Structures are given as C-alpha cells and as structure tokens.
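call fold(seq) -> tokens
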Amino acid sequence: MTLKVIDLFAGAGGLSAGLMSCGHNEFETILAIDNDASACKTYNENIGDHCLHVDIEQWLAENDVPPADIVIGGPPCQGFSLLNKNRVGDVRRGLWEPYMDIVEISGAKVFVMENVQGLLKSEEFTKIAERAARMGFELQYGLLNMADYGVPQTRKRAVVIAHKSGFFDKGSLPHFPPEPTHNSPLKGFLLPHWRTVKDAIADLPPPEGTEIRDVEPPYDLHFGRKPTELSMKRYRAVPPGGNRFDLQKNAPELTPNCWLNKPSGGTDLFGRLWWDRPSVTIRTEFFKPEKGRYLHPDQHRPITHREAARIMSFPDSFKFLGSKVEIARQIGNAVPPEFARHIAMHVRTIFDAQKVTNAA
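ret:
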C-alpha cells in the first residue's frame, strides 16, 4: 500500500526526501506547503511539483484538504511560547494549529512533528497534546540525537510521532524511539560509531571561487568566501579543535573586544570542526565562523555549502536552488534526509500494524 503524505512547513524537502528514499511506492507526497519561495523551488526540483509557496492559514481558508494517510512537518519554532515570550496576550493562532487542522481534515492516521528541543517544554506542546488526544491520537515523543541515526552531526531535535487510536494493533506497534543505528565511541562497539566529519567531506578538494558554479555536483556548491587579511590571520590562530579562546590566547591583538571582555561562554564560537567527530549542529549561517564551530578541520576557512549539505546527509544529487544565502537557509533549516529515512521506516512499521478490519 502506498501511503499518501502531506508535508507542511516543508522547506527544501528533507523530510520528504527521507520518505522517498525508503523504496519505490512506499510513500507518495501529494501536497507540500512552505512560505519560503526558494525552498519551494528546491522541493519541486527534487521531490515533485506539488510544493506550494503560500501562507498556510490563507491556503487552508480557500482550499479543500486532500485525503492523506500521514501529515509531516515542523511548525516554525517562533510560534512556541517558550522561545517567543513576547506573544503574551497575542490572539493569533500558533502555527501548530493549522497543522493540526490539516491532520484532522485530511483523515490522516499518523502525524510526525520535528522541531527544536524547546518544543517539548513549551506551553504550546501541552496544547498540541491536548488537541491530539481530542482527535483520538496517541503520542510518542522524545529528544533524539541524529548522530545516532547515521547523520554526521550531533543535531538534537524533538520528534513527535502520533497514531490514531483504534486503527492499529497496539501489540504490534513499534517501540519509540526508532532503534539507533550508530552510537558514540564512548559506548564501545555495540553499534557502528557515529559518522564523522571526515566520513562526510574528506574527499573534497579545496573549494574554488566564491559563487555558485555551473558545474556538476559536488563542485557546484563547493565555493569559498573572500576573507579579509584580518580574518585569515584569525583563522590561522585557531588550532585543530580550537575556538575563540585559542584565538584570544594565541593572538589577543586579533581578538574582537567583545570577546576579550567576555572571558567565559560557549566553546563553539570561531571553532574548528574535528575530523574524527560528528559536526556540531549546522545552522543557517554556517558560513560565518563567528556564529559557531564552522571552521574547516585543517584548512583556514569556513565550511562550504556543499560540505554543510553533506554534513546534513543530503546526497550530492540533491539540487538546491536560490542565492547563496537562500540555499544556506534551506540547508540549515532542513531535516537531514538520512534521519528522515529512519523516521519513515518507523512510520511504515506503524502501518504494518494496521488492523485487518480497517485495512479495507
């Protein structure tokens, strides 16, 4: 049975790409929605021409929702009160509400939410759970590390997988979370060790140029920047695995005053990635070392768009469309397809527990 999927807040299509990689005819995405025009173009280029660049509330008010088996997606974190405390007294609906409306109207039997860690501690998650219960769903949820599922990145995200009560045989439902495929080297060899930065990008030569190139992947997105001489001196002052504190120690005369005046704090700023570890979380401004641990392990430069895409587990064949900044935003906001593939296999197993009386 091919399962019909609606992908909301779809971005570039990382979740759908993971579903599609599970095998021919396992899943069929019939509708996707996002308010980022360039992300929709990327989605349509890779997944199928059904991503709409629209406001979800407006679309819902003007269109019929098609029947679907599954709804997937992650309402933007700005909607969660834990992360946006200025919404006190704001009567606008949270973006999770049209998501749940579409779950209900489509008749979906399963929905999947992926979001930042703060979701599970937010007041709005309580409301999501309450509404899901009223709609007859049972929720499984937790904080998952994507490195445990073959992504070369210690990206931790909240994942919610809900199934409709009474539609499935409880005794046959898979346990949550999905079984990890990898583990930290500190846990020994129970499973293959986490995939590393070296596994993901070591075969790439130094980048060429500073713009997106009209060449075959992976080299189309493997371009650099135009650092100033000051930036280059700062890069050279950071040793393997180092960070801004090493810059401050090795070259205080090159260190910004804001860092000199703050002798403590996070250890990832202006940091180098390690060859033998997974990357830190790739965010939308990975090309700016001052934003995090985004310096190449041994070259004096930040990682490239192609390197970031690989660390996110996107295959080189996945074609990103848009400007450099737009593509970086798509990469940083995506759900890694390899992680999504494991979620898809878990969902497929849920449907294998469908009761025979409801199968027809």
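The chain has two domains: 3-186+336-359, 197-333.
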